[in-house]
Every structure is written in structure tokens, then in C-alpha cells.
Amino acid sequence: MRRAVVVLVVLLSAGGLAPAAQNPALQAPAPGKAEGLPGRQDSLKFAVIGDNGNGDKTEYDVGQQMAAARAKFPFDMVLMLGDNMYGRQDPQDFVSKFEQPYAALLQAGVLFYASLGNHDNQSNRFYKGFNMGGERYFSYVKKNVRFFVLDSNVLDPQQRSWLDEALGRAREDWKICYFHHPLYSDGGRHGSDVSLRVALEPTLVKHGVNVVFSGHDHIYERIKPQKGISYFVAGSGGELRRGDVHPSGMTAAYFDQDNAFMLVEVAGDDMFFEAVARTGTTVDSGVIHRQSNDARATR
Amino acid sequence: MRSHAAAAHRVELHRHHQRGHAVHAIHRPVNRFLGLPLGVTIALVWANTVPEPYFRLAQTLAFAVNEIGMALFVGLIMQEIVEATMEGGALHSWRRWTLPLIAAAGGIAGSVGTYLAWVQGRYEVILTAGWPIACAVDVAAAYYVLKAIMPRSGILPFVLLLGIATDLFGMVIVAVWRPTVGAPGGGAALLLAALGLAGVMRTLKVRAFWPYLLICGPLSWFAFLRDGLHPAFALVPIVPFLPHEPRKLDLLADPPDDDAVHHFEHEWNTLVQVVLFLFGLVNGGVILTGYDTGTWAVLLAALVGRPAGILAAVGLAVLAGWHLPRRIGWRQLVVAAFAASTGFTFALFFASGILYTGPMLAQLTIGALATAAGALLAIGIARLAGVGRFSRAS
User: Fold this and answer.
1) Are A194 and B52 in contact (CB under 8 A)?
2) What is the C-alpha separation between B49 and B72, in angstroms, rounded?
3) What distance in Å separates the CA atoms of residue B231 and residue B117, rounded to the nearest whole number?
4) How many beta-carbon pairs under 8 angstroms link A with B?
5) How high is the pLDDT of residue B35?
6) pTM as predicted
7) Residue from the list A122, A155, A157 with its beta carbon closest to the beta carbon of B125
């Protein structure tokens, strides 16, 4: 019953009938912008998918919906949160589980930047379509945002010291991390990876990371900001564990009734986001204001 | 009156003696083998109730416990093996090794094959790196389970040798296959210095263990660390230099049974128990919802692959002309094969040795802990097959 009420609130908020904001860091979309994305010309626009590569109809449906969304919201890149490929991973699988579902986007020149999940063959980092440059973990810049891509399967000391150094060197306005296993999640099957959180979070907080995207739990969930960082679980890009969310005090919003992907726009000090279901319905939206490190320190 | 008092004194002495036996009977297993399970139990409860403080403590202590403290445990195991295989030791005769070695090879092939088949079949190739965990036999668990089922059976040394051979294989893999990047090197000179010093002490007939452990041990530890080898194995090259006396009884014989000999492990037992408790505490805490493909792979490898591999290898050896140990039949061998399926201590050690923090380590650790079910399986099969204490004839 409680779950049904929460889902209803999320759905209503998506339609602009109820405020999306459930914590001070988030605000409802501006009036007249039901989809919550301003679509500014000079902003960075991207999509986010996770746990997508099953080659099933659900993945193809989400791919089509992403292509449809791009007509209105012209994003240039897609973050892949891992489990980009399930099952067999032979050359023909890269076609049926990646190139075909996202054919329209690939033809339009959209670049996919992948991280590795537990189902991904480690050698997939050499696949050109994933733009990983052959690395398990790497960093890249787009406009005023620096992205940090991690391999959360094994957090070895080398990766940890690389992250610490790379974050320390970053001078961009926004620092966004993404990797497969969520530090915070209310997914019933996996949930928060606390061991990983204890190892990673101090570094993310120390260097002022703004947003973290993860997958692994086959749901969509927005977590209330934790220690100044906004967390999203977006692991239903192809796989889905229906009804798996067990909302807790850290839940800001969630959607676990159908597959979903995210659309994100970074414009100046604001990051606008929208979660879109496989049917095209917006199931969550909002905006995150970037905080300076000084502001975080006083929290 | 005097005789009455003497009789009362005798009764009191008898009671005291009995109390002593009872206390000793409880104290012995607690002192020698419960440190690790106790640590694991606390860790499991802690990690699944208030995980964040647990993981903070565990990750803070991990290096000190896994890389330094566990050197004492590995040194102790090495010492047990060296003494048992010395002239006059219980496992000296190499002829006794042949069939257990064949069984160990079969067990390794069966368990590793099962592990790899499972993770490949589930298309989780990333878990391939965890295969050495399948090469772990908890020797103490196997020994005591079999001793409880078949006391004084010839199957005991057979399983001990099988377990030791399997673990030695796994330890070599873990020692050299530790994923290390950027090790500075230069360890060879340090190791030579450690071995040279140990050799000098041996020549000077230094009888105390401390100088070997406190002077040569740290040198060897830094040598291993600098060359990217697992430093928990640092005492392995030092142990052969220590003063030894052959163990007249079985491996794992308890101090009171063998008091005439001044064994290293008797002195270090308490310290190693503390280390094992901490090892269990630091590594045993996993959130149980973290089970996944790797958990089943480790479990199937231990409980299905290893017994099947052992029995197949021994079967082939018998066909080729080898003989089973005296008064051991296939039913006993089946029970022994399942007793050797528990990986627990060594599986946990191998997992912590080859993998770093993360969900992969968590799921494999759950599998390693769950292999404790092998002991129950062995007892159940012995009961079903009417073996040892469960014999229908008795």
C-alpha cells in the first residue's frame, strides 16, 4: 500500500501535479517546462542507461524511446553504467545488444561512454563503440563537466590512488562519477554496497564530487543528497526488477514498474534531470544546484 | 580416621582430575580452532546490522591483519608441514604421499573445473580471477570431522596429505598471482640477507625462535612486499631454518599429546589464534544480500567439483594398480572426499589474498564461508552410508 502511494506521488509529480522536490537541494521544474529540461543551446546534454545490454525487446524499446527523446532534447552522449552486455559476448552480440538497439543514436553520431559491470567481459573496454580507450577506469571532459568512470567490480589500490589524484587535479565546475555498483540504493536484490561506500565516499566528498550515477539494481531511484553528493541508481535500461524498491529515509523518488533511462542537462551551476520510462512517460525530474566546496564544508 | 581422610582426599583428587579433563576438553578446541569462526560470526552479525562502522574498522585493520598478522599463520602451517615430513615425523614416508597427491590433483581439477565452468556458463568472465579460491581445503575442519566419524582410521593421514597438497598449490598461486602493480622491486637482496642471517643463526645453533622471527622475518616480509609477492608468505623461506624436532604424532596433534617436544606452534598458538580471530573479524563480514554467481561457483566447486574430482582420480589410480589405504573402502573414501570439501579458513585467506575491496570479493567470500556446509555434508553421508561411528554393525 505504502509503495503504491509513493509510486503514485512520483507519477503525479512527473506530470507536474505535485512538486518533484522532496528535499532542499531539489526544486520543481520551472513553470511551463513540464519535462524539466530547459534545453539551452550551450549546455551539456546527455542520457544515462544502465544494465541495458540484454538484447531483449525492453532494451530495443528503451533505445527507440531515447531516439525519440533526442528529437526534442539533442544530447550528444550517453553514459553507460555497466552490464552493457549480458550473456554471450561474441562479435555478433555487440551488434544485437548494442549497435541495433541504439542504431538511430549511433547513426546520429551520439557517443556512448561505458563503465564495466559484473556481467561485462573486461575485454569489452577495447570495443570502440564503448569509448573506454582500453581502460578499466578513466576520465574525460565535456564542456564544464569532468566525468570519472570507475570499475567498481574490484577497487584495487591503484584505481583508488588514480581517482584521488585525478579528482585532485580536476578544475572543471562539475565532477560527475559513474560506475556500476551503487553506494546507496534501496533495491531489494542488492541494495547499497556499504563496503564500496566506505572505501570510496571519503575521496568523493574530499574532492567535491557533485553527482554519482550507478546501476546494478534494476530500478530507477534518486537518493537524497548524502554528504553533499547526489546519487542516482539507473539500472533499468534493459533489465527490470519490478517492485524491487524498498523505500527508506534516503529515498527521494523511485520508479520500479517499467524500464527507464535518464536525460540530463548541465547548464552553468544547475544540473537538470529527467527519468523517462520505456513508454515515454516522465517518472521523475528536478534540478540540482552545484555547491562550491566552501559551501559543502559548512554543511 | 586417617584412612577415611585419605579416601576423601583421593575422591577430591579424582574430582579435580575429572574437572581438569573436562576443562581441558573444552579449552583445547576453543584455544586452537575457534578463533576464526568466532571472528567470522561477530563480523557477519555486525556487517548485517550496522555495516558502515564495521566496514570502516575492517578496512582500517585489513593491511595489518592480512599482510602482517597472517604471516604468523602461514609460518605456523609451514612449520607443521616441515616437522611432520621430517625423518621420524608422522608424514615422512613419501610412499604415503602418492595416492593423496593423485587425489589432491583430482580434487583441484574437479573444483577449479567446476568453478570455471559455472562462471563461464553464466557469462561472468570477470569472476575467472577468483579460481584459486577453489583450491582451498580447511585441513583442520576435515581432520576433526573425520576424527569424529572414524577415529584412528587410516583415512586421517590420507586426508591430511590431500589437504596439505591442495593448500600448498593454492598458496603458491596466491603468493605469486597477487595482482600488484608498481612494486618497486629489489626484494631479492633483502631475502638473501634474511636467509643468510637465518643460516648463520642455524650454524650458531640458536635454539630460540624469536631471533629468527624478529630479525629474519621482517627482512623477508619487506622482500616479498617489494617484489609484489603476498607478504603473508614471508616466513615460508625462514621456517626451514628454525630448530625442529619431528612430530611423532599426527599433524595437528595437540600440545599435551606431544609435550616432550618444544614446538614453535605451541608457543605461538595463542598469538595465531588472536590473529585468526582478527582475520575472521576483518574478512568475514559480508552483507548476505551480496551473494551472486561467484558464491554459487565457489560452493559448487567445493561441494561437488572437489569430491567428484577426488573420487574420479582415486578411481583411475586404483584402475592403474594403486591400492587404497589399508582397511579403507569406497564408502569411507566418499565421506573423506566430502570432509575435504570445506574450504572455510583457507578459502577466506585465498579470497583476501587475490582480490581487493568490492562486490566481487563479497560474493566469493560468502561462498567461501558457506563451504563450511561440507562438514555437515560429510557427517550426513557417513550416517547414510553407515560409516565409522554410524556403522550398522556397531
Assistant:
1) yes
2) 31
3) 31
4) 82
5) 85
6) 0.83
7) A122
Nearest to B360 among A119, A153, A189 (CB): A153
Instruction: Say which amino acid occupies A24.
Output: P
Chain A residues touching residue B357 (CB < 8 angstroms) = 154-155, 195-196, 199
In a domain, A124, yes or no: yes
DSSP one-letter string for A53-97? TT-SHHHHHHHHHHHHHHHHS---EEEE-S--S-S--SHHHHIII
CA dihedral B374, B376, B382, B383 (to 10 degrees): -160
- The answer to whether position A6 is within a domain reads no
Supply B278's cell numbers: 582478527
Owning domain of residue A258: 41-297
pLDDT, position B269: 74
CB within 8 A of B262, min separation 6: which ones? B245
List CB contacts of A124: < 8 A, sequence separation 6 or more: A84, A85, A89, A114, A116, A130, A132
Distances (CA, A) of B275 to A61, B32, B34, B62: 55, 12, 12, 12
Task: Please report the pLDDT score of residue A264 as a whole number.
Answer: 97
Chain B residue with CA closest to A195: the answer is: B55
Q: Residue B120: its pLDDT value, please?
A: 94
Using CB atoms, pick whichever of A88, A157, A195 lies closest to residue B362: A195
pLDDT of A1 higher than 50: no
**Cβ contact B241:B82 at 8 Å:** no
- Residue A27 has a pLDDT of 38
The full length of chain B comes to: 394
Contacts (Cβ under 8 Å, ≥6 apart) of B218: none
Q: Which residues contact A180 (CB under 8 A, 6 or more apart)?
A: A50, A81, A82, A83, A115, A116, A117, A118, A152, A153, A214, A215, A216
- All structural domains of chain B with their residue ranges: 36-178+230-388
**What is the phi/psi pair of residue A142, to 5°?**
-135, 115
Distance from CA of B279 to the nearest CA of A (A): 16
In CATH, the architecture of B36-178+230-388 is Up-down Bundle (1.20)
Query: Taking Cα atoms as reference points, which of A224, A207, A222, A238 lies closest to residue A282?
Result: A222
Q: What pLDDT is stored for residue A226 in this prediction?
A: 97
Q: Report pLDDT digits (tens) over A20-35.
A: 333 333 333 333 333 5
- What single DSSP character describes residue A129? G
The answer to whether position A1 is within a domain reads no
Grouped pLDDT means (10 residues each) for chain B, 394 residues: 52 49 43 80 95 95 92 83 71 74 96 97 93 92 88 82 90 76 76 94 87 92 88 90 66 49 63 90 91 96 98 95 85 95 92 90 95 95 92 68
pLDDT at residue A16 tops 50: no
- Calculate mean pLDDT across residues A260-276: 97
Mean pLDDT of A163-180: 97
Identify the band that residue A216 occupies on the pLDDT scale cut at 50, 70 and 90: very high
Question: What's the one-letter identity of residue B144?
Answer: Y
CATH at A83? 3.60.21.10
Query: Does A32 map to a domain?
Result: no
Secondary structure element (H or E) that encloses residue B1, with its range: none
What burial class does residue B215 get, using C-beta atoms within 10 Å of its C-beta: 0-12 exposed, 13-18 middle, 19+ buried? middle
Number of domains in chain A: 1
Determine the distance in angstroms separating the CA of A133 from the nearest CA of chain B, rounded to an integer. 19
Confidence at residue B11, expressed as pLDDT on a 0 to 100 scale: 53
